[in-house]
């Protein structure tokens, strides 16, 4: 029991430590002694507004034969549906809104940093970029994913869900508990590290060899950003599928 408590404390302290990691300067907002990263909130809000706008355009004038924005949004929904169905099978529908929203938000945040020339906008402190290059954003998304697969397991199996911790043998209890803490750590680190590395690479190349060399790297960054959104949402679906397995 002491080992489990120590493991839980270490992982909790690790998540708290991650939230304090900073690369570069940030635009801070202080509200009731709570510190917010202003540029992350602004760019995230832009991504959410654009997602809502595209959704509105795609559903405001629906036709039997889709065209224009409706055709675009139906293609997006079909793509997200395939992600959820591949992981969850025929029981994917209850979890499609979560997986779809997660994919669109991460995809939008990644692309916002890859294709929008934020460097042209000067701030008093810090600079704009992809919200997912901030560890606070990725940790929040990873913890939300963890909450959802716990909810999925409890809502489908009740307290019988916790039997998985002692299967196939009670000797695996510490390892199975540790696994639930490593999942959000790996999710958050993977997304944060890849997006941050891409933006830092482009920034350095733009300073050393402007205009020519950074362009292929930027194109590669757009592709990598898309892949990271796919990986994140696919893993979220896989974790939920693992939680409801056998139901």
From TrEMBL:
A Gene Ontology molecular function term of the record: proton-transporting ATP synthase activity, rotational mechanism
Principal subcellular localization: membrane
Keyword field: ATP synthesis, CF(0), Chloroplast, Hydrogen ion transport, Hydrolase, Ion transport, Membrane, Plastid, Thylakoid, Transmembrane, Transmembrane helix, Transport
Lipid bilayer topology: Multi-pass membrane protein
A single GO cellular-component term on record: chloroplast thylakoid membrane
Transmembrane intervals: 36-57, 95-115, 135-154, 191-213
Subcellular location(s) per record: Membrane; Plastid, Chloroplast thylakoid membrane
Region forming the signal peptide: none
Primary role: Key component of the proton channel; it plays a direct role in the translocation of protons across the membrane.
Name of the molecule in the record: ATP synthase subunit a, chloroplastic
Lineage, uppermost ranks: Eukaryota, Sar, Stramenopiles, Ochrophyta, PX clade
Gene name per UniProt: atpI
